[in-house]
Amino acid sequence: MKKILLLSLIAFCAVSANAQSPVINGLGSLSECVGSTMAINGTGLSNATAVTIGGTAVSSVVSNTDDEIIAVVGEGTTGHVEVTTANGTATSADIFVVNTLLPPVLSVVDSNVICKSSVVTLNSLGAAGKCLQLSGQSQYISVGKVLKAGSSYTKEAWVKTSSSGPGGIIASNSDALFIIGSKLFASNGGGAPVADTVLFPMDAWTHVAVTYDSATTTLTLYRNGNPVAKDTLSLPGSEDSIFIGQVGSIGRFFTGLVDEVRVWKVARSRFQLVAGMHLAVPENSFGLVAYYKLDEGLDATAYDASGHGNNGMIFNQAKWISPSDAPLDYAFYSWAPGNQTTSSVTLAPDSTTLYTLAVSDVNGCVTTDTIRVTVNTCVGMEKNNTVPTISIFPVPADGSITVFASIPFNKEMQLSVYDVTGKDVTEKISSREITGNEKILTIGINDLVPGFYFMKVKTGPGIMCARFVKH
Fold it and tell me: Looking at CB atoms within 10 Å, which of 19, 180, 182, 373 has the fewest?
């Protein structure tokens, strides 16, 4: 009997010795797109009962050995990776970023039911994903401390408001980017603020940014990529907590829509601001310390897509808006059939066709949407229409654009301009014809608010569209 007990005790001790708590030594990558695979490396990982990212289960587990787990990234949230086995739970030291790319929203100019030999123009929106609406009544995002005192920085965002202020956009108690008296201001280190000299655009998406260069003590305020105010003797910035939607902890709440908020620990140049303002940025971009895409669409957390874990807390039930119509582009477009690579295409299908648009972002994530164009045989309609061609320069533009329009057979030309929502804004432009059949027009766009626009040229049944950007 004693021998049996001794053998049992030895066996129990052997099993206990072999029971190993899971340990995560590293991740194969620190970010992946939804639907891609990720690798988790460590020890004691076999027979995992749960694998989560930021508290949300992965889509599936492809393989599970003692030293590696291959999992499929699901529609989850950015955060630490956790692996649970019968012997415990292991947590990664690094934060894993889940890159979610929302599908495009396809629309058609006029109608998706056309006559044979006619043309149809398809547009795409959705690159901005979702955005957050703040009421001006105690709704804001608390970010915390993400910058060191005295360091260089850049703070930027897309905003849309109908309020003259006061309202903080990205601000701490002493370093603020804000609107007051219908003008854009920025301050640093509690010093005197610099101000834009023109009224802030109302009811229009506007890109705002402020940079501070600690080496030159220069504070620069930007609106839509243009420097509008500067202070070359600015005081150093603070290490105070940053808020989105209010000035520090003293209130002055912002009223309107907010999207694509980014904080950098470097002073970005004007060229860098303009190059990146209409695109998402990779999470490993140099100097990026906090990045809020505001695409969650639920709960009260604004997840940091920079990979640094500076998640923001959303207070007092701010409203999610989907889709956002902020003027962002996808990194790449591919239409099928046709192989066009622009956000807007003009097509002349011979039969009813289902068009698919595949888009990708700067992280290589891909998603698609489809739209059907129905083609009917219409009795008495002119066939073999000749379509005009147009080119627009410069892009982007400020006060005016030049349009080169080739008009077939001296047909009368009708020109229309639409914003990204499909609203006709033709009455806000001015035009001057310079030459005849090969028409060159100077189009005044001073009264258009900054953003993306579509120009439609119609000559009888022939239609051609082109896109331009107002700074």
Answer: 19
